[in-house]
Amino acid sequence: MGIHHYFKSLSDLEMIYRCPGKFKFQEHSVASHSFKVAKIAQFLGTVEELAGKDVDWRLLYEKALNHDYAELFTGDIKTPVKYSSPELKRLFNEVEEEMTRKFIEREFPKEFQKVYLGRFKEGKDETLEGRILAVADKIDLLYESFGEIQKENPEPLFLEIYEEALSTILLFKEMTCVQYFLQEILPDMLRERFIEQSELVEITEKMVEASKND
Amino acid sequence: MGIHHYFKSLSDLEMIYRCPGKFKFQEHSVASHSFKVAKIAQFLGTVEELAGKDVDWRLLYEKALNHDYAELFTGDIKTPVKYSSPELKRLFNEVEEEMTRKFIEREFPKEFQKVYLGRFKEGKDETLEGRILAVADKIDLLYESFGEIQKENPEPLFLEIYEEALSTILLFKEMTCVQYFLQEILPDMLRERFIEQSELVEITEKMVEASKND
Amino acid sequence: MGIHHYFKSLSDLEMIYRCPGKFKFQEHSVASHSFKVAKIAQFLGTVEELAGKDVDWRLLYEKALNHDYAELFTGDIKTPVKYSSPELKRLFNEVEEEMTRKFIEREFPKEFQKVYLGRFKEGKDETLEGRILAVADKIDLLYESFGEIQKENPEPLFLEIYEEALSTILLFKEMTCVQYFLQEILPDMLRERFIEQSELVEITEKMVEASKND
Amino acid sequence: MGIHHYFKSLSDLEMIYRCPGKFKFQEHSVASHSFKVAKIAQFLGTVEELAGKDVDWRLLYEKALNHDYAELFTGDIKTPVKYSSPELKRLFNEVEEEMTRKFIEREFPKEFQKVYLGRFKEGKDETLEGRILAVADKIDLLYESFGEIQKENPEPLFLEIYEEALSTILLFKEMTCVQYFLQEILPDMLRERFIEQSELVEITEKMVEASKND
Amino acid sequence: MGIHHYFKSLSDLEMIYRCPGKFKFQEHSVASHSFKVAKIAQFLGTVEELAGKDVDWRLLYEKALNHDYAELFTGDIKTPVKYSSPELKRLFNEVEEEMTRKFIEREFPKEFQKVYLGRFKEGKDETLEGRILAVADKIDLLYESFGEIQKENPEPLFLEIYEEALSTILLFKEMTCVQYFLQEILPDMLRERFIEQSELVEITEKMVEASKND
Amino acid sequence: MGIHHYFKSLSDLEMIYRCPGKFKFQEHSVASHSFKVAKIAQFLGTVEELAGKDVDWRLLYEKALNHDYAELFTGDIKTPVKYSSPELKRLFNEVEEEMTRKFIEREFPKEFQKVYLGRFKEGKDETLEGRILAVADKIDLLYESFGEIQKENPEPLFLEIYEEALSTILLFKEMTCVQYFLQEILPDMLRERFIEQSELVEITEKMVEASKND
Questions:
Q1: Does B38 contact D39 at a Cβ distance shorter than 8 Å?
Q2: Chains B and E lie in contact, requiring 3 or more CB pairs less than 8 Å apart
Q3: A138, C206, D194, F179: least buried by Cβ within 10 Å?
Q4: How many CB atoms lie within 10 A of CB B41?
Q5: For this UniProt entry, which segments traverse the membrane (chains A, B, C, D, E, F) (predicted)?
Q6: ipTM score of complex
């Protein structure tokens, strides 16, 4: 029993890689993903706050930092499996909750159990913070899939992930932070361009030519 | 639709690493594991054959090469989750079978579907070949965990895996090939020794001394 | 200009590895480290809160998530260099602040600049949250060096890092959360034991023996 | 002496990477390659069987699983070296056979030596199974080189490998399984297409537009 | 104290990767870079010698092999930081020299100190050998950035590095070896072409067609 | 044809890893190895020079930097194969020389061919520089195998490599630089010690205790 095991488990999240079984140019661990989601949620929360919403920052950060912790207990179950029947999904959620509860009771001293039971709850609820988490999680996934497409990963899966992530974000289109993302951030992402090798010839020739007149 | 997708999927098995989320000195992919299980099963089958048993080699190799293919559809579900309730286990099995069936119907031309439905069936049944597969699968797991323990991986999980693998092998202790493994192979594994840095001093001194008299 | 560049830069932190130029069994990125520090700070803050302290959670999470972001601009400067003279240290700090300010002015729209200038400030100040960050940062470093020592990394540097991290933690020994760490967590870490290969012989023999009487 | 060394050597094949000294996006080990060749040979054998041929499945699997095992003894000798003179080629083959024979005599108990001497023989002979192995080996090489070309590896070597592999396959064009490959599988491989970043703009705009009318 | 530590430190240079924090398809260590710079300098020196210049080969090799050794003491400080003010640059150089001096005095026996103090001096001075080093260092950087652009790395940084490297080379355009590089080597680099997947269709069809007439 | 191909091939040496097919904690490329051998040879040459020998530095550096370049053409052929018969060894050397000659004639302009034919010759001859190379090559191999043994690699091969490397070094025991190595450097290597986890308990307790009296 002990917090030591909990601290050690954080490092295990550095060794769970997302989307196994598909070729990727860049791997992302659950630990890194959780960091990025927390930072993106921070920005989205700031947008909502500037628009006059009341953000419970403590709650928002807790949701972002913990939202994938349970993968330590359950492993990586493919989404089509998880959602293949409502019955399986319900049972699976029960198992996940049970395992989390047992982990907390085994590793956490009494006085911390209540607060950690709250922290390990499913975070994507109907609160403002739950919705910000849902959006931030998908924005990071959008960036991960965009990174692969931009590096010319031929695997069609990444286009499917991009579309799935975007369509989930669009479900929250009434939120100010989603509108901000769609209008101010996404266009910049799409405007990113490649350096073509053919440009190199031109650039090189110009530079060599210019240097002759120095 | 097409065999092309099936051939391509073989390479995805090179990118699924066993036992994610735990520090390992050496990673093992599902593709490599399947290769090693097939080779170990080959040896175990040879022992049984020499002892007079009739081995259906075609069936044995099919079982060994295919036994983890379905991880492509389902992902890596941790064992405690899978076995947490008989109901969940039954549902998971149904989903796995359903997904395999759909994959075969989608990717394989009609004339191959029947033979591949057979090949993708759960292999660890009560036949001689099914039992050899069960043993070979655990022998490779024993070697994987032994490799980590021998490299001094401090993660206690690998001792648990070693014990779990050995205890499963012992369930089949009536089989000639298991007796052979226990008597002729396992003792050699356990006799492997470390090279201590302290030995280096002695070896070095002896060699330097000896060279003086050349 | 744009938040897009800021979001993209989060992924660059996944590719900065801590402590370059030394052999390590397990690498840790700045992104992963920031995640772990945020989670450790969360626990330490909970201890302080239970002890009756008032924790500004928003501030604590901001400090933890941002504390190493500036490495993107400055690179990894070895500590002995940074601290070689008070003058150099002062100049380096000025450059770091200047670069951070320029980055924010270039990439962030006006309305976000003030809040992000605050977020990117040096976090380890005299506030309760600043001190929790200082401790959490060193606890993660302690775990990183312990992980190497436990895996028998022969590099003496990791013992030096362990000692340096522990001695910084001890500077904050008046804090409730540090006392909790020293009394309840650190002893569990030190009690972790190795699995000796020699144990395997014994375990194996016992299991084989026991199975004979089944 | 012992089977233990043979079992352990299987794991060494996980650490021999094909085509060293050339930049690759995805590495393939000899163990993985052997697995894939066995699975491809399984399919090709099935095609031949459906066409009425008699397949010796035991032999086919043995050939596929063992065909590169001798690289453990000889290392990776570049093809132009191996074939630079008929004399050198003959000598290399003699050395390889001698080393394999010695390994079997040293590691395998008497009763297994004969069967393993057979299994480690050069597999690509004139039998149906030998020809299926020759084709399956090259199909996997074709997929490996295609994977690099598709990911835009600028190294011209991979085009040479693609051509060399295809031309070897074409030598066996009278075989039913080769005709099946050329007509049903290869066209699907060549039809695979890239996702262009430019498509993303269009897809994104359509999705955002559509969501406005929800 | 001892040469042993110096020999061991060479291996640390194998674990310092250039340009951290940016996605790269191929990593380059400081050890590999130093090797390549020494080989490129060898060629450039040969060009100068054939043109009648007197090359001090001992000096040239020493400069090339040692030019990045000090990164072991200072770490990887980003160029914009280093050059942000003349004062910082001066101070930083003083620290680097001081650290190098201390390292030599601590690790090298008296009789070797003078020669190694010379070897660890900043190599890019006004001598012929110093200028060859400056060019060789940038040619390797040009190749590293070209390798990324050719593999379609979307990171604009690599174009900036390419331009910066080329413009530094052009500063030395009066040197025979630079003229040789610009006229004989650079054009070959730029002429390198991609294999397009679309070519595969044509090549494949031609080969299949041709084989029909065998 | 062109120097461009020669420059590009240097990067291929970064992707040839030494001793494939054996588990290693730390990989070493041929490029890194060549760098380290050149630096070790530099030190050994300095010892000889201080002892009054005349060192041809140009020759020494050329030998060190080029000594494994031919692995690009031939691949990694295991030593027992190469030396299995004098006839094979002779033929193999002829092939290597032929391939090197052809490479130089194909890639190098006429005016450079002679000097590069000299540079690519087998370097380990009877000259002082040839003997220094032979020793430096084995010292680096000794360090590579020591690094594995020190990290507790259970593979007995590394002890064999250590012994083989040391016994080759001892063949040159009359050289001043070898005596220096044996007396001044090797003992320091062997004196390196492990950090035991058990020490951590003691160190930690002392530090915590001491901090109580601050």
A1: no
A2: no
A3: C206
A4: 29
A5: none
A6: 0.93
Task: Point out the residue among C7, C26, C109 whose CB comes nearest to the CB of A143.
Answer: C7
| Beta carbons of B190 and C200 less than 8 Å apart | yes
User: Is E39 within 8 Å of F65 when comparing Cβ atoms?
Assistant: yes
Q: How far apart are CA B175 and CA B172, in angstroms?
A: 6
d(CA F48, CA F53): 5
Per-residue pLDDT reduced to its tens digit, B102-135:
999 999 999 999 999 999 887 899 999 999 999 9
Q: C189 in contact with B at a CB cutoff of 8 Å?
A: no
Q: For C76, list phi and psi in degrees, rounded to 5.
A: -100, 100
Question: By CA distance, what is C147's nearest residue in A?
Answer: A8
The 10s digit of each residue's pLDDT in F152-200 is: 898 889 989 999 999 999 999 999 999 999 999 998 888 886 556 667 7
- Structural domains in chain B, CATH included, are 3-207 (1.10.3210.10)
Contacts of residue E37, Cβ cutoff 8 Å, sequence gap at least 6: E64, E67, E133, E136, E137, E140
Distance from CA of D21 to the nearest CA of B (A): 21
Residue A78's pLDDT is 80
Half-sphere exposure of E49 (CA within 13 A, CB side): 14
Given CB atoms, is F206 within the 8 Å cutoff of chain B?
no
E16 contacts: CB under 8 Å, gap ≥ 6: C20, C21, E29, E30, E31, E71, E72, E76
Residue E90 CB contacts under 8 Å (≥ 6 apart), including other chains = none
CB contact under 8 A, B151 and F154: yes
User: Any chain D CB within 8 A of the CB of B179?
Assistant: no
Partnered with residue F29 across adjacent β-strands are F17
Give the angle subtended at the CA of C76 by the CAs of C74 and C79, to the nearest 5°: 110
- Determine the distance in angstroms separating the CA of E195 from the nearest CA of chain F, rounded to an integer: 17
Place of tokens 């977020």: C119
Concatenated DSSP letters of F45-107: HHHHHHTT----HHHHHHHHHHTTTTHHHHEEE-HHHHTS-HHHHHHHHHHHHHHHHHHHHHH
Q: Does E11 touch chain D (CB under 8 A)?
A: no
| Min Cα separation E142/chain A (Å) | 11
User: pTM value?
Assistant: 0.93
CA dist A75 and A87 (Å) reads 19
**For residue F29, pLDDT beyond 80:** yes
Q: Which of residues 27-56 of E touch C (CB under 8 A)?
A: none
F with C: touching (≥3 Cβ pairs within 8 Å): yes
Decide: residue C70, CB within 10 A, 0-12 exposed, 13-18 middle, 19+ buried: middle
Q: Is the CB of residue F167 less than 8 Å away from at least one CB of chain B?
A: yes
Name the residue of chain C whose CA is nearest to E87's CA.
C91
- The position carrying tokens 């065998």 is E214
Interface D:F, Cβ pairs < 8 A? 92
Question: How confident is the prediction along chain D (214 residues), in pLDDT tens digits per residue?
Answer: 689 999 999 999 999 999 999 999 999 999 999 999 999 999 999 999 999 999 999 999 999 999 999 888 887 778 777 777 888 888 888 888 888 999 999 999 999 999 999 998 878 999 999 999 999 999 999 999 999 988 989 888 998 999 999 999 999 999 999 999 999 999 888 888 655 666 777 877 787 788 777 7
CA-nearest of F104, F98, F5, A197 to D157 is: F5
Q: Which residues contact F120 (CB under 8 A, 6 or more apart)?
A: F66, F69, F70, F100, F104
Query: Which residues in chain F touch residue C190, judged by CB atoms under 8 angstroms apart?
Result: 197, 200-201, 204
